[in-house]
Amino acid sequence: MFGRRLKLTHTLGAIAVAASVVLGVGAAHGAQVTLLNVSYDPTRELYESINAQFAKDWKAKTGDDVTINQSHGGSGKQARAVIDGLEADVVTLGLAGDIDAIVEKANLLPSNWQSRLPDNSCPYTSTIVLLVRKGNPKKIHDWDDLVKPGISVITPNPKASGGARWNFLAAWGYALKRNGGDEAKAAAFVKVLYKNVPVLDSGARGSTTTFVEREIGDVLIAWENEARMAIKLFGADKFEVVYPSLSILAEPPVAWVDKVDRGHGTAAVSKAYLEFLYTPAGQEMIAQNFFRPRDKAVAAKYASQFPSMSLLTIDSDFGGWKKAQPKFFGDGGVFDKIYQPGG
Amino acid sequence: MAGQPQREPKRPGTADPPMVRIALIAIALAFLALFLFIPVIAVFAEALQKGIGAYFAAIADPEARAAIRLTLMTAAIAVPLNVTFGIAASWAIARFDFPGKQTLLTLIDIPFSVSPVISGMLFVLLLGVRAPLGGFLAAHGIKVIFAEPGIVLATIFVTFPLAARELIPIMQAVGSEEEEAAIVLGAGGWQMFFRVTLPNVKWGLLYGLVLCNARAMGEFGAVSVVSGHIRGHTNTMPLYVEILYNDYQFAAAFAVSSLLTLLAIATLIAKRFLERRVVPAKQEQDNLAVKVAA
Fold first, then answer.
1. Backbone phi, psi, residue A128, to 5°
2. Cβ contacts (< 8 Å) between A10 and chain B: which residues?
3. Is the model's pLDDT at A277 over the cut of 70?
4. Is the ipTM of this complex over 0.90?
5. Which of A265, A320, A328, B201 is most buried by a 10 A CB count?
6. Cβ separation B73–A83 shorter than 8 A
7. Architecture (CATH level 2) of domain B46-293
8. Residue B273, Cβ neighbours under 10 Å: how many?
């Protein structure tokens, strides 16, 4: 049986110092559990529906009330906050490298975390696509069109955003293949591409609002789910998705954070919460929110929604995040070399 | 304004040509309209674009209420503390000479010269669980960063100089003669403070309080860094506005923004009112001082 997480009291004395002491503790009543899911940017809508359904199921199964709080932001930024003490019971981030960073810098979960759940702890996948304005006025059909002069490309900053790193690697992988594996030529390609980027937001959602709401840019490099969500919310008469000839299989992983769970007594419910993502009901919600489901039956049902694409993978084409992260996005890595702000 | 009762057909030689006047007024008004009126109207127009029902629904949303509550609570702690500090600091600086007085004045100004984001980072570096102090607090179950206390601390830090900066010149201008007179007439320390010192600076104090409150409720940068952005828990109103905007809930984002805008307008009105009071109070003091000296 899991314990109960203490709830913060909001009653405060006049003295702030006393208040900060008081805030740590408070009364807990009934079997009331609170989880904090620290996630990346484009999962807001997905986890809103998952949370509601899981809370209902959990109540039916155990009689306990579970409230799941959400925090969203650029994947790298969110990992940083967890390292600095944001008490995430579960993390659902944009890429494995960010959870590895939590292991490395704060040791909050074991290094074999990725083998604890099926499919490398990635209950859903996505890929990187191009979102253009209706009618595709700039005739953008593939990555080559993004390096043409006068094309304005919107993508977030790979230093802060997980999605942006997938974007970068997709473009890199394409250029590498095109140039027969010549890394210098691939670097030249992405250098020109990033020269066409007028705004480098800190998260995928920031880039989407830049493109969709502020109407800046000719093309948005985006998560497939983010692009499809934008079309659903803003209308198919405004935007359309372009599927490039080659992209990357993006695998956003999930993990429970052992040390935090132990402190909160939330280990069982955290694990059940993440396992729910793999159930047919969870997979169905995943597909409805435009993430690609793992479950074969659900995938077949939504097949028309997800065109099959030729995809690179992080493990076989880039040697995994442990290698790709420092090589491309570490200090002095490929991205630092090719990107000069204003240059 | 120049010729009041009888209209003069010719303008006096000291006045500017009408064209210049008209041009200047037009420029000033156009500038105001562009940078003030239009954005303020836009906020309310966007907020109400889905109707008055949606407007109130956005404000009554549990997450919005939590954000409003946290904002009010933060201000309720930060403002009295900073006002108390402001009185103490201005008193010390205006009444006493001590070594390090200039240094103290400079130190009070630090939060003004530091970018709010850096202020927030400073608290994460100091009180995050990776830091010795933060680790010690965490080990004892005290959460500061990514919880309400961190938000309160960051707010206190950025609003720190506002009340003191307002009070110091007034305290200095008022001088200590009346206080000395009170003591000579047999008043105790606290009696003198509440009967003489405080009434003398009350308008300046209120002015500082209004400014401090406006900043405390509106602060974004520093608070954003220490918040952790847990929905319904550690989002103040400005942070919640950003979240709504990023959730594509534009009307709701502007509805909450409109509350902050109303706060800003109320602050401006209070400021205007108090400024009128502060200046005559100072002049009165000056006149009195002149009379006493004569």
1. -105, 125
2. 69, 73, 148
3. yes
4. no
5. B201
6. no
7. Orthogonal Bundle (1.10)
8. 14
